[in-house]
UniProtKB/TrEMBL annotation:
InterPro entries: HMG_CoA_synt_C_dom, HMG_CoA_synth_N, HMG_CoA_synthase_prok, Thiolase-like. Its EC number is 2.3.3.10. The keyword Transferase applies. The keyword Ribonucleoprotein does not apply. (3S)-3-hydroxy-3-methylglutaryl-CoA binds at residues 29, 143, 242, 275. This is Hydroxymethylglutaryl-CoA synthase. Belongs to the thiolase-like superfamily. HMG-CoA synthase family. Substrate binds at residue 148. GO terms for biological process: acetyl-CoA metabolic process. The active site is at 79 (proton donor/acceptor), 111 (acyl-thioester intermediate), 233 (proton donor/acceptor). One of its GO terms (molecular function) is hydroxymethylglutaryl-CoA synthase activity.
C-alpha cells in the first residue's frame, strides 16, 4: 500500500535578523554564529504570527477544496502551545474550512512530534482509502535575549498532506524510534523559555542518531550507500552535520561525497530561517527536494530528534513526477522578500511577543491582507484575520 507525503509547504514570518549583526551586538566573533553554529539569518516573529496563523499559512496554499472534503484528521505538532487544553489543530481546522467530521488534536515531544504525527497518519490511512490527514508542525523557537540558545532561535511552520498514492514521497515501513529519559532541553509548565544543557543536548542528539540509525541498519540490513541523501532535524545547521560526520567513515568514498553534498542542499533553507523546532526536519526535507538534483525511485533517510528524548530514523522513496509538486520559486520568493530588522528591533519584537502586545502599525504591511494573522485577543480568545 502506497501512503506518504502528497503535498508539503512551509511558511516563515516576514522578518529576520542578520546573524553577523547579532554576533556583533553580543560581542561574539561572527564566525561563531556563521560557521561554528552555521546560521546566516534568523526568522523573527511578530506577535501577530503564532503557531495557529503560521500553521494555517503553511497549509492554505496546498489545500484544495477537494482536500478539505477528505481530510479526516488534523494534527498539529508543537512545543510552543498557546493553550494547555484547546488544541491549535481545532483553530486551524476552522480557519481552513475543513469538513466538520474530523479528529483534531495536538502532539508534543519537543522537536520530534511531527514525525509520530506522520506515522500515526500513515497507520490511520491504511484502513481509510478515501481519507487524507493534514499534519502541521508549527513553532516559535525562543530561548531569551542574550541567552546561550539565542543564536538558535527562529519561527515557522510546515504543512503536509498525507494520503494514499502520494505525489511526492512514499513512506516506507521501516521506522525505528529510540527513547531515552534525558534532561537536555525541557520547559516545565509556567516557564516562558526552555531550560537547556547546551553541550549535553548536542551529545544526546548524536547518541540518539547513532542508536536509531544503528538499530535501523541492523533490522533492515541497510548501509549508508542505500540512501541518495539523509535529512536531519536541524536546530542549527552544524548539528546534523556533526551527527552525519559521526558515522560517515563507515561509507565508501562516493557515498561520503554524495551524502555530504546532499546535506548542504538539505540545510540551505534552514540556514536562513533558524530553528523552527518540530518543522526543522521537514523544512530541511523541502530544502533537499528543491535544491538537489534527485530522481524518482531514490530513497531519502530521515532522522527526527526531540530533546527529552526521542529519536527516529525512517525512510521515504521519491515517486514519479515529484518535482512537479514542489514550489521552489514560491519558497525562494518567501525567503527573499522578508525584511531585515536591526538587533534593536528584533529585541522589541521579541518582548512584544512575550507580552502579547500588538503593534499593528509597526508590524503591518500591504501583504498581510493575503495571509492569516492574529489580529487581537479578546477575553482570552484569539481572533484571526483571514486572507481576503
Ligand atoms: N569561528 C568558528 N567557530 C567557532 C568560533 C569562531 N570564532 N567560536 C566558536 N566556534 C564554534 C565552536 O567550536 C563550536 O563548534 P563545535 O560544536 O564544533 O565545537 C560552535 O562554534 C558553538 O560553540 P559553543 O562554544 O559550543 O557555543 P555555545 O556554548 O554558545 O552553545 C549551543 C551553542 C548550540 C549549545 C547553544 O546555542 C544552545 O544551547 N542552543 C539550544 C540547544 C540546541 O539547539 N541543542 C541542539 C540539540 S537539539
Amino acid at each position: 500500500m502506497s501512503i506518504g507525503i502528497d503535498k508539503i509547504n512551509f511558511y516563515v514570518p516576514k522578518y529576520y535578523v542578520d546573524m553577523a549583526k547579532l554576533a556583533e551586538a553580543r560581542q561574539v566573533d561572527p564566525n561563531k554564529f556563521l560557521i561554528g553554529i552555521g546560521q546566516t539569518q534568523m526568522a523573527v516573529s511578530p506577535v501577530s504570527q503564532d503557531i495557529v496563523s503560521m500553521g494555517a499559512n503553511a497549509a492554505k496554499d496546498i489545500i484544495t477544496e477537494d482536500d478539505k472534503k477528505h481530510i479526516g484528521m488534523v494534527i498539529v505538532a508543537t512545543e510552543s502551545a498557546i493553550d494547555n487544553a484547546k488544541a491549535a489543530a481545532v483553530q486551524i481546522h476552522n480557519l481552513l474550512d475543513i469538513q466538520p467530521f474530523a479528529r483534531c488534536f495536538e502532539m508534543k515531544e519537543a522537536c520530534y512530534a511531527a514525525t509520530p504525527a506522520i506515522q500515526l497518519a500513515k497507520d490511520y490511512l491504511e484502513k481509510r482509502p478515501n481519507e487524507k490527514v493534514l499534519v502541521i508542525a508549527s513553532d516559535t523557537a525562543r530561548y531569551g535575549i542574550q541567552s546561550g540558545g539565542e543564536p538558535t532561535q527562529g519561527a515557522g511552520a510546515v504543512a503536509m498532506v498525507i494520503s494514499h498514492n502520494p505525489s511526492i514521497l512514499e513512506l516506507n515501513d521501516d521506522a525505528v524510534a529510540y527513547t531515552e529519559d534525558v534532561y537536555d532541553f525541557w520547559r516545565p509548565t509556567g516557564h516562558k523559555y526552555p531550560l537547556v544543557a547546551g553541550a549535553l543536548s548536542k551529545d544526546a542528539y548524536i547518541k540518539s542518531f547513532q542508536e536509531s540509525w544503528g538499530e535501523y541498519a541492523r533490522r533492515e540490513g541497510k548501509s549508508l550507500s542505500d540512501f541518495e541523501s539523509l535529512c536531519f532535524h536541524v536546530p542549527f545547521t552544524k548539528m546534523g552535520k556533526k551527527a552525519l560526520d559521526s558515522i560517515i567513515n563507515d561509507a565508501d568514498e562516493t557515498t561520503q561525497e554524495r551524502l555530504t553534498a546532499g546535506y548542504e542542499d538539505a540545510v540551505y533553507y534552514n540556514r536562513y530561517v533558524g530553528n523552527i523546532y518540530t518543522g526543522s526536519l521537514y523544512l530541511s526535507l523541502i530544502s533537499l527536494l528543491e535544491n538537489r538534483d534527485l530522481k524518482a525511485g531514490q530513497t531519502i533517510g530521515l532522522f527526527s530528534y526531540g530533546s527529552g528524548s526521542v529519536g527516529e530514523f525512517f525512510s521515504a522513496t521519491l515517486v514519479d513526477g515529484f518535482e512537479n509538486h514542489l514550489d521552489k520559486e514560491g519558497h525562494k520568493a518567501l525567503l527573499n522578500h522578508r525584511e531585515e530588522v536591526s538587533v534593536e528591533t528584533y529585541e522589541a519584537y521579541f518582548n512584544r511577543f512575550d507580552e502579547l502586545e500588538f503593534d499593528h502599525v509597526a508590524e503591518k504591511s500591504e501583504d498581510d491582507k493575503d495571509i492569516f494573522y492574529l489580529e487581537s485577543i479578546e477575553e482570552d480568545i484569539r481572533q484571526y484575520h483571514r486572507p481576503e
